[in-house]
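User: Predict the full complex structure for these chains.
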Amino acid sequence: MDEFLTTHKGTTRRDFLAAGGVLVVSFAIPGRAASETALVPGTAWPAAIDPASLDSWLRIAADGSVTASVGKIEAGMGIGTAFAQLVAEELDVAIDRVTIVMGDTAATVDQRGTGSSNGIMEGGSALRRAAAEGRAVLLGLASTKLGVPVEGLRASDGEVLTADGSKRIAYGELIGGRTFDVKVSETPRTKDPRDYKLVGKPVPRFDIPPKVEGRYRYVTDLRLPAMLHARVIRPQEAGARLVRADVDAKLPGLVKVVRRGDFLAVVCEREEQAIDAARRLAVEWSRPAAMFWKDYDALYAALREGKPKATKEQGVVGDVDAALARAARVVEARYEYPFQSHASLGPACAVADVRDGGAVVWCGGQKPYPLRGALAELLGVARDRVRVVWMPGPGSYGMNDADDCAADAAVIGQALGRPVRLQYMRAEGTGWDPKGPPIAFRLRAGLDGASEAFAWDYEARGFSGRVRANGTEAAGRAADRRLQREEHRLAAVLRRIVSFRQRAQGEPHDRLEPLDADGAAHRAPARSGRHGHVFCLGVVRRRGGAGRAHGSGGIPPALPGG
Amino acid sequence: MSAKPIRMTVNGRRETVEVDGTTPLLYVLRNDLGLAGTHFGCGLAQCGACTVHLDGSAIRSCVTPVEAASGKSITTLEGLAPAPGVLHAVQQAFIDEQAAQCGYCLSGWIMTAAALLAANPQASDADIRKGLTGLKCRCGAHMSILRAVKLAASRMAAAKKA
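Assistant: Here is the predicted structure of the two-chain assembly.
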């Protein structure tokens, strides 16, 4: 195959070539250096794509088609279409001339990826500025070429025209295939929203027709020449050590058993053979002491009754207990929040090609850029030798098993030295994906004689470890730890926010605060001051009974590393 | 383990594959025939993303051995459209209602709905809800999906009358 880039284009999204079950696509970004688009391990890719350069964001081909690149990803929000809308608007081109390239560490600016609903906020604003800058450059080029002052020119539908339309020149003719060679201004002149023709109007999503016709390509669908299929083998319990595995087993299609520390995987010629081999391989795991409580009642009780190890106080102005003591009435509520999985419809999949001191990894996760550093550490290769290429995953709602799968695929690929596709089975995705940890809430409101809340005590007792062991940029040690399950640990944190509507922007408790609207509590600070406390409890682990890997509604076996 | 040739018709084309007959049909479609529009969601027949038509009936290809399709006719999402450039009414309705987010489950909804409406062109709203029970969409696109299937049902009924 030549190239494989994930693009979202107007009416003619590039189709894969289907040949002998191998799906590949050929695609080149006009003006890109070979080192930016080569999908062969051993290539030295750019350490970073310069965010200041307009060429990092925008390319215009000789035929006037536009390629806009952005460090965000599409997970079904329609963001690819929205990006095209923004670019088409600022650049004054038809939206179906715009192709959006997303989430490729060698070809798009590192914006970390998409998360916390920041796709439009960060990616959209960057593209808007880039397109506005591009339009200004095109007007300048046209001015020189047509001999007309910029003030006498306007841009419309991929062309620059004189006011009376007597002279005109197409974008492709002005810059087609060449680079802009300018920096994006700090404050480029973007359009007045009153002049918008496209932004703010409903535009049908580009990705829906290929999705309903079965032509849309997810990372699960990528097939490389000479690619093998892998499945991982996980223990039933967190903390289990790999005692023994039949690495010399003879099973149908089995090419290799890959073992690294406590990590175990099988690689076969065919996918169903890998599934079968993973089930049949003789493996012995240690029986670790149980890491978690036997059930949720015990878990929540431990959270509620646990003694905080450390206290962090913020913005303390008054004494909430004293305020509650003088309340005419105290209303109290308790809530419990179990382990939560982002649980995509399909378990994660990744394809890794690790050879010649480098790696190309295709992944469906939301954060391809941090993953690049994590994979470099995990594989022991330089960062510029790793390229992570995002492709749409089988659903994504936040941190899921996608990056774990990419790391596993990379480890397997390194042991193989040839391309390998790994997809988790459902139980592995559900049992071992990173999870939102449980929280036990206790909320108290002090009401005055007029039933107005004036004191507010919000206590959230939960665990740390929202971030998984790998998939963030400092993942080397953590990545090893991921493979050393006995060191998996669960740090428990009791967090208490005692507040008179204390808002800390972006803090999780902010979103959970029941009195989030302009309610009575909003007026409380004037009367009683503001309080903020955070309590932390240290490591709590290996208590009670075992977690189960395949149960429904139970405590999962694997939790995010601390 | 035997790899006898298995013959079947897939999207109107005669195909022969030489694989172990117990191989789930899903992997043959995706990996041998290059039809990646049918998806693996759970491998347990619980989500529906792998749904295809086997002689017109919606089945879960992740738990159907390929030998069960021997001599039969299979339609996948790629082959649902009646002619090039013309979509099936259900597909068109999904576009018109913008009934997808990530779209990974769509193969299940569209193929199940198409089989349902073929078997029962007069399907009521209740029939449609019942017929789609058991399919999963993790993005929560259910209401737009329901609107799309109802739209397709009404268009198909109108076309029949005309």
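The beta strands of chain B are 5-10, 13-18, 51-54, 57-60, 73-75.
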